[in-house]
Each structure stands twice: as structure tokens, then as C-alpha cells.
Design goal:
heterodimer, A: about 150 residues, mainly alpha, 6 helices, B: 9 helices
């Protein structure tokens, strides 16, 4: 007797659950009915059970023991370094903003520098600032629209 | 995961949320091997697996206050962070990723240590393991992932559904399809 096509998808799901030991008391009789009444179901059950045995026995190459010994230390160091980077970035932004402002102020007040040079220097600084803001905004926009954003704290 | 272990995880998460790094360290030590091997299965590179699994722990710590320990298992939540880091890496590297077949371990060396082992059985088992790694390598990443989570990590359907953000039915269909393809590739050995 052949398995009706309308029943095939149901059997496939039950077979998957049976292989993984996730059949419950309600679905077990249905699965047993399939296996007992349809030889092709029984054959599939045997083949997939064999495959499950093989996949469950798979092993990965173990890394050297030092990897496990130093694992938490490495994570800890990264956490610490993250805080360090945050402080460094914050300090750098404040220093650069203040220093930049003072430099522009001094340049503008300097009577020995020609007006053309002053304009050129200011244009270079303004251009750099615009580019920086543009890159930052793009990064921020990507982070906001990234579908993985919920999981990854950037 | 046994219930007592989940409870311990929950207690450690709560302590981590209060800023106790030591508690988070215990969580890391408890899950580091699962994390590393899962990353290895997804990236195919031991260096990347170590780097990304550690980075995922760092990001998990930074976001730990957002995690509701009563709603799900820590590792399932952590896995989502890890998975996305691995996907980003694969996206960035494209086809330059290391062949997955290189990371499998032959059981030969371990089983051969037993003096009573039959050489013919060992050879056959070893050959089957190698075939399995080759077959896994040729699967689509999504298919390989469900096999690894279920058969290697031993996650339940519910945990997989949480980790993969999809219904249990989808997890089961993906598993069936992945195994169907794997069985075709392993036809000569089963």
C-alpha cells in the first residue's frame, strides 16, 4: 500500500519529530500507524534513524587547551578595552572640538596670514567636518535599519 | 538543557544584570565550548570561531540588561548574537570562507585507542565520518545550521525556534529538508 500524497507532508513532520525524540503522546499513535501500514514509511524511518546516528556522532576538532584556559580572560580583556575605547573616544572628541575651535579663532585673528589662505584652511577644515558627519550619519542609518540590530549592540 | 542548569543560568544572568562580572564569567565558562563549536560550524575557521564567540559574549554582556531571563534560555539569546556576527562575517568575506569540510574530526584516532576495536569497523566508521563532513560542507548554510543545532548542540525545537526567530513548524520543515538532502549525499554510506 502506497502512502497517499495528501498524507506525505504530515508524515514528514512526524518522522522528523520521531527521529528527534519530540513526538508527544497524541502524535505518537499517528506516526506508528504510518510506519506499520506503509512499507515506504518504515523504510524512511530506518534510513533517517541511521542518518541521525551518524550526525549525532560527529565531532569537531578540539582547540588547544590554552584556548579554554584563557577564554574568559580574553572576554574580560575585551570588556575592559571597550570601556577604555569609550573614554578615549569621548576625550578625543572634546579635545579635538575645543582645539579646533581655538585654532580657527587664532587663525582668524592672525593678521599676518592672508585672507585667501584663511579661507582655504577653513574650507579644508569645513570639508573634513562635512565628510566626517556624512560617514557617521551613514553608519548610524545602517545600524538603525539593520535587521540584526536588535541582537547586535554596535 | 536540564532544568537545574537553566535555573542556575537565570540566577547568573540576574547577577550579571546587577553588574557582577564574576557571575558573567561563570556564564561564559559554562557556555564557551558550545559557543565556540557553534561558531566553528557556522564559520569553518577556528580563529574566527574563537574571535566571534568571544565578541558575542562581550556584546551579550553589554546588552544583558535587555535580556529577560525568565522568558528564555541564555544560550538561545546568546546564539542569536553569535549567529548574526557569523552571518556578517560570511557576508563580508563572501566565498573566501574556509571549506567547512576541513574542521571535522575523524573519530579514528579516538576509537583506535581502544585495543579491542576492529580495524575494519574503524575504517568504515572513519570513512562515514569523512563523508558526513563532505556532505555537510555542500549543504546550504541554513540547512547545515539546523543540523548542527539539533544533532550537535542538542537544542529542542522550541529553543531552535527562539534562536532562529521562526515557528516550530518551520524548524521541523527545515530539518526534514536538510536531512533529505544529507541523506541523498550520504546514500552510499547508509
Amino acid at each position: 500500500m502506497r502512502l497517499p500524497e495528501s498524507q506525505r507532508e504530515r508524515f514528514q513532520l512526524l518522522l522528523t519529530a520521531a527521529i528527534d525524540g519530540e513526538l508527544d503522546a497524541q502524535t505518537r499513535p499517528q506516526f506508528e500507524h504510518f510506519v506499520q501500514h506503509y512499507p515506504e514509511c518504515q523504510a524512511e524511518w530506518l534510513k533517517y534513524s541511521k542518518l541521525k546516528e551518524v550526525t549525532q556522532a560527529m565531532q569537531f576538532k578540539n582547540p588547544p587547551p590554552e584556548v579554554w584556559e584563557n577564554y574568559w580572560r580574553s572576554v574580560y580583556n575585551r570588556l575592559e578595552r571597550g570601556f577604555g575605547w569609550l573614554l578615549l573616544s569621548l576625550g578625543a572628541v572634546i579635545l579635538l572640538t575645543y582645539g579646533g575651535f581655538k585654532a580657527i579663532e587664532a587663525l582668524w585673528a592672525d593678521t599676518e596670514v592672508e585672507l585667501v589662505m584663511k579661507i582655504a584652511i577653513l574650507a579644508v577644515l569645513a570639508g573634513t567636518a562635512v565628510l566626517l558627519v556624512s560617514v557617521l550619519r551613514e553608519k548610524l542609518f545602517t545600524a538603525r535599519t539593520d535587521k540584526y540590530q536588535k541582537e547586535i549592540e554596535r | 538543557m536540564p532544568e537545574s542548569e537553566a535555573e542556575n543560568d537565570q540566577a547568573l544572568v540576574l547577577r550579571s544584570q546587577r553588574g557582577e562580572r564574576h557571575a558573567f564569567g561563570l556564564l561564559v565558562q559554562r557556555h564557551m565550548q558550545r559557543a565556540y563549536f557553534t561558531a566553528l560550524a557556522l564559520t569553518g575557521s577556528p580563529e574566527d570561531a574563537r574571535d566571534l564567540s568571544q565578541e558575542a559574549f562581550v556584546r551579550a554582556y553589554r546588552a544583558i540588561t535587555k535580556f529577560d531571563a525568565t522568558a528564555g534560555a541564555f544560550f538561545t539569546w546568546y546564539y542569536r548574537i553569535l549567529r548574526n556576527l557569523c552571518l556578517n562575517l560570511r557576508r563580508d568575506r563572501g566565498r573566501r570562507a574556509r571549506p567547512f569540510a576541513e574542521i571535522g574530526e575523524s573519530v579514528m584516532a579516538q576509537v583506535a585507542a581502544a585495543p579491542e576495536a576492529d580495524p575494519a569497523v574503524l575504517a568504515e566508521r572513519n570513512e562515514m565520518q569523512e563523508a558526513l563532513w563532505r556532505a555537510l560542507a555542500s549543504l546550504q548554510p541554513v540547512a547545515r545550521e539546523v543540523i548542527v543545532l539539533k544533532d550537535f548542540q542538542g537544542m529542542s525545537y522550541k529553543e531552535m525556534a527562539e534562536a532562529l526567530h521562526c515557528p516550530v513548524g518551520t524548524v521541523m520543515s527545515r530539518l526534514y529538508e536538510a536531512r533529505r538532502r544529507l541523506r541523498e549525499l550520504m546514500e552510499d554510506y547508509l
